[in-house]
Amino acid sequence: MITVALAKGALLKDSVARFAAAGLDFSAVLDKDNRQLMVPTPCGRARALLVRNGDVPTYVSYGQAQLGVVGYDVLKEHQLPVAQLVDLGFGGCRMSVAVKATSGYQRALDLPAHCRVASKFTHCAREYFDALDLPVELVHLNGSVELGPMTGMSEAIVDLVATGRTLRDNGLVEIEELFRSSARLVGHPLSMRLDDGALTEIVTAIRTVETSKGEG
């Protein structure tokens, strides 16, 4: 049986739709009354694991799931050995540096050396500031990183931005973009190499849907 790791939350509905195009019906996971974390398809060919977005690459890299859907931001942050198979095009956002609108900073290089930067994505932030040759102190936060500059704990944040409304509502402004993120179909490398054709069939069907959307 094929196991697919699906992220709870914002990516779930579109993920289910993509697998439906490949003939796998995971729609039961969208039922608001569903409490199961492992949900089989009616056909019995596959099952879905409902996990947190950040845990998808872990389940896939360890082989507990052969396929998964996860944001590119998570892949960049965790750097786990999974195969990136298809850019699914939904869940679009950007990883950005933001500061208080009143700070006067116009770009990341305006930040003072050794200042504090708050982020959930400390690996991505470290990679970015190292490339700029700007030494900063990274403060890892799991919650609302916008509070860093608001309280004076940090000069800046590195975080995901979709519409930018949360930043604006809290008096912050973007000054740099690190990279763009979207949902990705990922696979367990060994499972893909040993595939008897079942995984390839699913990946090809999903890729065909994305290609036709791009051409349309």
Description:
By secondary structure, this protein is of the alpha/beta class. 31% of the residues lie in helices and 29% in strands. It has a six-stranded mixed beta sheet with strand order 2-3-1-4-11-5. It has a five-stranded mixed beta sheet with strand order 8-7-9-6-10. The two termini are 34 Å apart.
List the helices and strands and how they pair.
Elements (H helix, E strand, L loop, with lengths): L1 E6 L4 H10 L16 E3 L5 E6 L4 H6 L5 E5 H7 L4 E5 L5 E8 L15 E4 L2 H10 L5 E4 L6 H5 L4 E6 L3 H5 L2 E10 L1 E5 L1 H5 L4 H18 L1
Parallel strand pairs: 1-3, 1-4, 7-8, 7-9
Antiparallel strand pairs: 2-3, 4-11, 5-11, 6-9, 6-10
Features of the shown structure:
216 residues, alpha/beta, 31% helix, 29% strand
Unreliable segments (pLDDT under 50, ≥5 consecutive)?
none
N-to-C SSE string, H for helix and E for strand: EHEEHEHEEEHEHEHEEHH
**Helical content, roughly?**
25-40%
The residue-averaged pLDDT reads 94
Biggest sheet architecture? 6 strands, mixed
Number of strands: 11
Task: Tell me the structural class.
Answer: alpha/beta
Mass-distribution shape: elongated
Count every helix, treating DSSP H or I runs of 4 or more residues as helices: 8
